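Appendix B. Chain record.
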Amino acid sequence: MVSSDNPLLIDEGICRFDLVQPKHIEPALTKVITDAETKLAEIEAEIIPSWNGLIKPLDTLSIPFEYAWSPVGHLLNVKNSQELRVEQQKMLPQVVKFLLRLGQSKPIYEGLIEIRDGIEWQTLNDTQRRVIELKIRDAELTGVGLSDGGPL
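Structure tokens predicted for this chain:
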């Protein structure tokens, strides 16, 4: 059921919570995670350490995921049901895996450090600098710098 009939695949405006059904969760999240993983691999393959070259593509990558996943959490709080919990739990491992992959990306982390330590840093406004600082902090808290010989 991956189609425009799936309200979790609409990535603009306010979610139509009244249309979301448990059957929408798996196909929507499978699609947005697959698409995001592809885009993430493309970004990692050619890191451009700049606001437009790294931060904007990362934000673009995250938008469909947020539009699909955030409503699920909201619905669990306001319209909890057995069917909704089953579908959310089914997708949770894939969501966590994707978020860890994104958060622990060494190429992205190194690109963020390059922006912070590079010439462009002086041209960024305070808000942009704060965004980069928070992304670096989040990556470090997610464990990007840990290395035990295995994959991050």
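Further analysis of this model is presented in Appendix C.
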